[in-house]
Specification:
Helix content: 40-55%
Distance between the termini: 51 Å
Structural class: alpha/beta
Radius of gyration: 23 Å
Number of helices: 15
Strand content: 15-25%
Number of strands: 14
Shape: globular
């Protein structure tokens, strides 16, 4: 009962309210998944504040007092819930620390509780959740701050009718956003940005991939990961990586390298974008690779950082794009649009090759052309298409 009393009486730390909200559902667990340090715990706090602390109970299973919790303690757990007044919503953080946690959650659902679970990316991923909860769940993807949430953290109004001065502040914030990224701790402590991002990256590499998948040759995996990172914003080929590593004397099969790529995607470190075309896309086929946050890219790579911000936002909106490659290349093909991203503030700054590639993609795919710029809004007419141009800040805030 100590944990219950602490939850009811303790203060919840100040936080930036996230745009997406969790709505618990009776009979089905909500599983919050996403990259490490994206704010899953704070989202549970936010849910408790919105629903009311008298009807919710937050439990962190990393608490030392819960070490050694086993299935035989489930009855005691139910007794403690009854003493706490049987809160209708249970917010279970780091639930993966409980042996057979899926059975715990399913049993709680059977007892009528509404359950939200969150935890480590290495143990509570899109692979483990279906296995443990056996269809009795809905996934809730939480990514680092969106640009709207970033503006909220900086106390800047997201105003579509902004004055020149306000627009200047939004553009300055956008530059900071694509430079630092949206991880909450990085946003709040920009002076520690590089150290924090390196620690996140290393934790993904060694805890979420090497340890979790029992990779014996960690040095070879590190080389592969460095090849991935050098390809951020570009097309990455397993076959080319295989040749590069073999040239270094590192003999790994293409299947092993494809698995490494899959592990990094499952750990929410990268987003992979397959090529547009008919049929299924094999993991061995070249894909465009983006980090899960633009902060992972080196400073000054504005074009790639813009593309990454778009790729992450598409993922946040539940869109799985492809890229187009013919004589030229277009960054994203969605269900409705062919999207070209360019670091330009006027039509004259847009590379002619980008427009030619967009014309080709539109003719091949039949999608509506869209150009996402740094700060130009209008219409661009070429020989074959009439394309809408939208500034990145506006697209991130309001869509196209």
């Amino acid at each position: 009962m100590e944990l219950v009393a602490e939850w009811r009486e303790g203060e919840i730390p100040a936080m930036v309210e996230r745009e997406r909200q969790i709505t618990p559902i009776r009979g089905v667990a909500i599983a919050v998944v996403g990259p490490r340090r994206a704010g899953k715990t704070y989202l549970l706090y936010q849910t408790a504040l919105r629903l009311g602390r008298e009807t919710t109970l937050y439990i962190n299973f990393e608490d030392v007092r819960l070490v050694g919790l086993k299935p035989e303690h489930f009855s005691d757990f139910l007794k403690a819930l009854a003493e706490a007044g049987n809160p209708s919503v249970l917010l279970l953080d780091e639930i993966q620390n409980v042996p057979h946690w899926g059975r715990w959650v399913r049993s709680l659902l059977d007892k009528g509780y509404m359950v939200v679970v969150a935890g480590s990316s290495s143990k509570l991923s899109l692979r483990e959740v279906p296995t443990e909860l056996r269809g009795r769940y809905l996934s809730f993807l939480l990514l680092p701050f969106s640009f709207r949430e970033f503006l909220k953290a900086r106390n800047i109004a997201a105003d579509i009718t902004a004055s020149p001065a306000s627009r200047g502040r939004i553009l300055a914030a956008l530059r900071e956003y694509v430079e630092l990224g949206g991880y909450p701790e990085v946003v709040m402590r920009p002076d520690l940005a590089q150290l924090l991002l390196k620690s996140y990256r290393d934790t993904v590499a060694y805890r979420d991939v090497v340890e979790r998948h029992k990779i014996r040759d960690a040095a070879s995996f590190e080389v592969f990961m460095s090849l991935i990172e050098a390809s951020f914003g570009n097309v990455f080929s397993i076959s080319a990586a295989h040749r590069r590593m073999r040239g270094m004397g590192l003999e790994k099969s293409k299947k092993t390298l494809a698995n490494y790529l899959k592990y990094l995607e499952e750990a929410f470190y990268i987003i992979t974008v397959p090529k547009w075309g008919p049929g299924k896309t094999s993991l061995l086929q070249p894909r465009k690779i983006y980090p899960i946050d633009p902060g992972y890219l080196p400073k000054g790579q504005w074009g790639r950082k813009m593309e990454t911000a778009v790729a992450v936002e598409l993922a946040r909106r539940g869109i799985s794009p492809k890229y187009y490659r013919g004589k030229g290349e277009v960054d994203f093909i969605t269900e409705d649009e062919a999207i070209q991203v360019t670091y330009a503030s006027s039509p004259d700054e847009i590379d002619r090759r980008e427009l030619t590639s967009l014309e080709e993609a539109v003719k091949a795919t039949g999608k509506r052309p869209l150009i996402i710029t740094w700060d130009y809004e209008g219409e661009i007419v070429t020989r074959g298409i009439r394309a809408k141009a939208v500034p990145l800040w506006k697209w991130l805030l309001f869509g196209s």
